[in-house]
Design goal:
Layout (H helix, E strand, L loop, with lengths): L6 H27 L1 H8 L3 H28 L2 H19 L5 H29 L5 H30 L1 H9 L2 H9 L13 H7 L4 H7 L1 H18 L3 H30 L11 H13 L2 H31 L4 H30 L6 H20 L5 H15 L3 H10 L6 H14 L2 H15 L1 H4 L2 H14 L5 H9 L3
Length: 492
């Protein structure tokens, strides 16, 4: 039995995790500012650049769920600290590669580190702030998504202009090491754990990886087979490799889901009570929770559409501004970083505060906040992508980014509002798996392929349109979120 930490310590933990989350997205997005330099240095196409981005997202997606399970069953601190070390090392190593396949592998492993941090950190923050201020706390944590995204582009552009793209990757990778040490020393608010050392770290991560791999075998086979086929086809047709890989992964995921559903029916996983069992039992329990909670279904589907649009916009923005507005990549990165930092931070924090304030009057407050921001911001983004006058571009960019950043904190808070604490990291991992696998894993190479065929100016218009559709889907959860929250609140 543990005692919840005081408010001061909870704020310290939130601050540390928010800084680490920011750094995670700096490591993720820095490559977007380097696309043009990498393209000329390594001789790759836009579609291949899209796959450099998707390599991160694909591994992030596939690893988020099992690492969420690991965080629930073992140590969230160990998962977080290990993830930070992994992404730091392989971001730095990305700066030493001399071929497209090597860069692809390094970016994929950076995604593994990001997945380790994502679900476990959200689960910890939800426990530090069990009720009052949860949406605001999630907004602070999630501000790193927006702020880190634009800061990574800004830093990448500035460092690349002076020292080259390789130095930029090394420079953003190294600061994660001391933060990993601090994360390892955090107190878990609801679990009695020993001080984390190398011995306890290895003990905490022991969970039967062979069994876990066996349960994900169809998906693993799909990824491997699709990757081999895509590499074989890639040089001949950059569009066919995207289609073949996507089809193979989708087939593997469909077969995996079918196995999980069959297992749920056999094991009676619809009853979540009882002590935590093995990793796969916990996985099945979380998936059953998602399927029987209407709010989660709407949030998962809407979140995938939002991820497709928002991450695609962030990823392709420097390239769009360089080609369509005539800016250098460095100048585009500075503009995005400076104004995006201000508008994105303000939007993420305002979204959390607004959702918590509105919560006084209605249980649908967080759903309304998510949808309202997207319904206002997405049309502004469409307008933005049609502007070629910089005098109008900057203010409209700030307005669009402000509204489009509202959703970050409230959408995470909704998930933890309707999920029991004992499987919260697992469900958060399932959410991250789904939205990225069905969202920006597809978005990055698809927009690259469309750009190769129709030009970047037409290709990017798809992105805010899809994000708008995501806001409409999430709005459907307004009918169910109150009932789902009350069900979780009932003890037993």
């Amino acid at each position: 039995m543990t005692r919840l930490p005081g408010r001061r310590y909870a704020l310290y933990a939130l601050g540390l995790l928010a800084v680490i989350n920011l750094l995670s997205y700096v490591n993720r997005s820095v490559v977007f500012a380097l696309f043009e330099a990498i393209k000329h240095d390594l001789g790759v196409t836009d579609a291949q650049l899209g796959w450099v981005a998707s390599a991160y997202v694909l591994v992030f997606s596939l690893a988020a769920l099992p690492l969420g399970v690991l965080g629930d069953l073992r140590s969230r601190r160990a998962v977080i600290a290990g993830g930070v070390l992994v992404w730091s090392a392989f971001t730095a190593l990305s700066g030493a590669v001399h071929s497209f396949p090597a860069l692809l592998v390094c970016r994929a492993i950076v995604g593994l580190g990001g997945a380790a941090f994502g679900a476990a950190s959200q689960s910890l923050v939800a426990d530090y702030f069990p009720s009052r201020g949860r949406a605001f706390a999630m907004g602070v944590l999630s501000a790193g998504i927006t702020v880190g995204g634009v800061l990574g582009i800004w830093l990448g552009g500035r460092i690349e202009a002076t020292y080259g793209w390789r130095t930029a990757l090394v420079a953003v990778g190294l600061p994660g090491v001391p933060l990993a040490v601090l994360a390892a020393r955090l107190h878990d608010p609801v679990r009695a754990l020993d001080r984390l050392s190398l011995r306890t770290y290895l003990r905490d991560l022991e969970m039967g990886l062979n069994a876990l791999a066996r349960h994900f075998m169809p998906l693993i086979i799909g990824v491997v087979a699709g990757g081999i086929a895509a590499l074989w086809i890639g040089d001949a047709d950059s569009k066919a490799d995207v289609a073949v890989f996507s089809a193979a992964v989708a087939l593997g995921l469909a077969l995996n889901i079918r196995r999980w559903v069959v297992r749920m029916g056999r094991s009676g996983a619809s009853q979540p009570a009882g002590p935590l069992g093995g990793a796969f039992d916990e996985l099945v329990r979380a998936l059953a929770m998602v399927l029987r909670t209407p709010t989660l279904v709407y949030v998962f589907i809407g979140g995938a559409l939002i991820s497709f649009g928002m991450n695609g916009i962030v990823g392709w923005a420097p390239t769009f501004m360089s080609r369509e507005l005539g800016l250098t990549v460095s100048r585009a990165a500075v503009l995005l970083g400076t104004w995006g930092l201000v508008a994105g931070t303000a939007g993420a924090l305002f979204g959390g505060v607004f959702a918590d304030w509105l919560r006084r009057y209605t249980d649908t407050s967080r759903v309304i906040t998510i949808s309202l921001g997207l319904l206002i911001g997405a049309p502004l983004a469409v307008w933005l992508l049609m502007i070629r006058d910089m005098a109008h571009f900057v203010p409209i960019f700030c307005a669009a980014f402000f509204f489009l950043s509202w959703f970050n904190g409230p959408i995470a808070a909704v998930i933890f509002d309707v999920v029991p604490a004992r499987i919260s990291a697992t469900v958060a991992g399932a959410y991250l798996l789904f939205i990225h696998l069905a969202g920006d894993t597809i978005s990055f190479p698809l927009i690259g392929a469309l750009s190769d065929r129709f030009g970047i100016s037409r290709a990017v218009l798809v992105l805010p349109t899809v994000a708008l559709a995501g806001g409409l889907v999430v709005l459907l959860a307004a009918r169910t979120v109150g009932r789902d929250m009350r069900r979780v609140a009932v003890p037993g």
